[in-house]
Amino acid sequence: MDWHDYDAALFDLDGVLTPTAEVHMRAWRDLFTDYLTLRGITDRPYVESDYFDHIDGKPRYDGVRDFLASRDLTLPEGEPSDGSDADTVCGLGNRKNDFFAAALAAEGVEPYAGSVALLDHLATTGTKVAVVSSSRNAPAVLEAAGLADRFEVVVDGQVAAEAGLPGKPAPDTYLEGARRLGVEPGRAVVFEDAVSGVRAGHDGGFGLVVGVDRGAGTDALTDGGADRVVTDLAELVG
Ligand SMILES: O=P(O)(O)OC[C@H]1O[C@@H](O)[C@H](O)[C@@H](O)[C@@H]1O
Fold first, then answer.
1. Among 23, 60, 64, 109, which is best to mutate for testing ligand 1, by the most ligand atoms less than 8 A from CB?
2. Which atom of ligand 1 is the closest one to the Cα of 96?
3. By the 8 A CB rule, do 212 and 220 touch?
4. Which residues of 208-224 are buried (b: 16+ CB within 10 A; e: fewer)?
5. InterPro entries from the xrefs (predicted)?
6. Which of 93, 171, 211, 225 has the most CB atoms less than 10 A away?
């Protein structure tokens, strides 16, 4: 990998820089297992592949809506300010966030060592870096992981909602990250562990889309638009 071929690297956060995709995954499992059980829906319980097929990488309320649609269920949209007990798309998403916040507070977060090694390397090559995450928790996770100071540009779920940008798999948040860095998408590399995210990078016309396989699978990431797939970002050092 010759980093002089590129001006910037845009990183997804959960599952790329920090192992928090797993924390989100558990929170979604707890939410939907409770939800389906309480409603007596037992014919198709929540299973692990539901996360990768319907939720992974998408903004909070899109994840709720898309999972419910997989079970032919719909709920009123509600408002982001809905309490976590509201039977709305936003209420369920906020309930999931209660599970996520509790786990983050209890467990803390350490970044992936290989990802830190790549960030250290990019600091020496002068490559610009940004975080592009669907999560509204991205600033808190970056802070908890000790990575916040490394990124001047962070396009997170809250920023996207305020700017009216559609979330992944739409390319808009990655394009906004490149715009804020002042680089052409064709000269930037996207790092993503979710199929929705590699699709966003591919459709945004980025110079290279790297799939990071943390469980989605090489085939799914390649089919989604990844140009190459790695299991650790240290593979891209030097
Ligand atoms: O609910 P939040 O923190 O805004 O996160 C939304 C999504 O953020 C993404 O980064 C994760 O891959 C998803 O699993 C998560 O659901």
1. 60
2. 1
3. no
4. bbbbbbbbbeeebbbeb
5. B-phosphoglucomutase_hydrolase, Beta-PGM-like, HAD-like_sf, HAD-SF_hydro_IA, HAD_sf, PGP-like_dom2
6. 211
Domains of the chain: 3-20+110-236 (3.40.50.1000), 22-107 (no CATH)
Distance from residue 21's CA to the centre of ligand 1 (Å): 8
CA of 60 to the centre of ligand 1 (A): 6
* Atom nearest to 28 CA in ligand 1: 16
Residue 9's SS3 state is strand
- Is residue 172 annotated as part of the catalytic site, yes or no? no
How large is the ipTM? 0.97
* 3-state SS assignment for residue 155: strand
CA of 2 to the centre of ligand 1 (A): 31
Dig out the tokens for 168 from the structure: 């992944």
Per-residue confidence in pLDDT tens, the chain, 238 aa:
899 999 999 999 999 999 999 999 999 999 999 999 999 998 999 999 999 999 999 999 999 999 999 999 999 999 999 999 999 999 999 999 999 999 999 999 999 999 999 999 999 999 999 999 999 999 999 999 999 999 999 999 999 999 999 999 999 999 999 999 999 999 999 999 999 999 999 999 999 999 999 999 999 999 999 999 999 999 999 7
Q: Check pocket membership of 196 for ligand 1, CB cut-off 6 A.
A: no
Q: Which atom of ligand 1 is nearest to the CA of 197?
A: 12
